[in-house]
């Protein structure tokens, strides 16, 4: 039989043990806090150095060809004419502005950037000029020289004449790459966009020398009207790329974009 004293002392011992556990917990708490705070501080105070910052990801870009590729093409006897003031300052088919005082020319087939040696057999005078435009569009004519180029071989007075042309190479800066607005769905190829409708019509005429389904679509951007020259309607990216590669290689600016139904 348990006495009240035994119960009392037993209760006292239990209370004493609980106090020891509580006191031990209080003693350990500062240590735990210290360890915890020291750990946090160690990570928070690590200095950030430039080497610790992830390097900016570099975007790979295709580099356009540079320089001049020399080659000899077949000599041809063709009919040449010239153009000047009426087109001075207007965009050529390659996208450059026409400068009647630069040694350039327009041809129906040679890729943009092709350097031609043009000889007037009537006086043996010659000139070297760069193809940067399409034309001429008058039947029976094969080459349109700038005013400056025509003047070099005394063709300005007669207006037209038979000449000998020989390709000498190509300026590779005229080679272009395809850009993408979209790459899926029904696609088309945009080659130019102009505020002046006559410039769009001229580019359309130039493209129709070698390409089918060339059209102009109107667009309003910021309250301004633009005339966009486009080629084809394609059901997939591969078909659009095939025509786009041909245009870009020829020297045209190429943007593959979403086909929009003409109204």
Structural class: alpha+beta
Q: For this entry, what is the oligomeric state of its chains?
A: single chain
Alpha carbon gyration radius: 39 Å
Overall average residue pLDDT? 83
**β-strand number:** 12
Order of helices and strands: HEEEEEEHEEEHEEHE
Amino-to-carboxy terminus distance:
109 Å
Uncertain segments: 1-16, 21-62
Instruction: Tell me what portion of residues adopts beta-strand conformation.
Output: 25-35%
Helix content: 25-40%
- Sheet with the most strands, sense and barrel status: 6 strands, mixed, barrel
Number of helices: 4
The neighbouring-strand order within the major sheet is 2-6-3-5-4-7
TL;DR of this structure?
With 263 residues, the protein is an alpha+beta fold. It has 4 helices and 12 strands. Helices cover 27% and strands 31% of the residues.
């Amino acid at each position: 039989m348990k006495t009240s004293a035994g119960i009392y002392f037993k209760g006292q011992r239990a209370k004493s043990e609980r106090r020891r556990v509580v006191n031990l917990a209080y003693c350990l708490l500062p240590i735990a806090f210290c360890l915890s705070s020291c750990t946090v501080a160690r990570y928070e105070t690590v200095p950030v150095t430039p080497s610790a910052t992830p390097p900016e990801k570099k975007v790979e870009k295709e580099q356009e060809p540079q320089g001049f590729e020399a080659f000899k093409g077949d000599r041809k006897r063709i009919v040449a004419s010239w153009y000047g003031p009426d087109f001075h300052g207007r965009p050529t088919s390659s996208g450059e502005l026409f400068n009647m005082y630069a040694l350039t020319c327009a041809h129906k087939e040679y890729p943009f950037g092709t350097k031609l040696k043009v000889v007037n057999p009537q006086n043996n005078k010659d000139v070297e000029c760069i193809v940067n435009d399409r034309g001429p569009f008058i039947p029976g004519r094969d080459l349109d020289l700038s005013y400056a180029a025509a003047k070099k071989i005394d063709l300005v007075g007669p207006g037209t004449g038979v000449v000998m042309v020989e390709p000498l190479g190509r300026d590779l800066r005229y080679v272009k790459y395809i850009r993408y607005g979209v790459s899926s769905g029904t696609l088309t190829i945009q080659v130019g966009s102009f505020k002046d409708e006559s410039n769009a019509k001229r580019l359309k005429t130039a493209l129709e020398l070698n390409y089918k389904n060339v059209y102009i679509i109107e667009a309003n951007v910021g309250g301004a009207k633009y005339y966009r020259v486009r080629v084809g309607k394609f059901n997939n990216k591969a078909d659009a790329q095939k025509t786009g590669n041909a245009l870009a290689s020829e020297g045209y600016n190429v943007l593959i974009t979403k086909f929009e139904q003409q109204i």
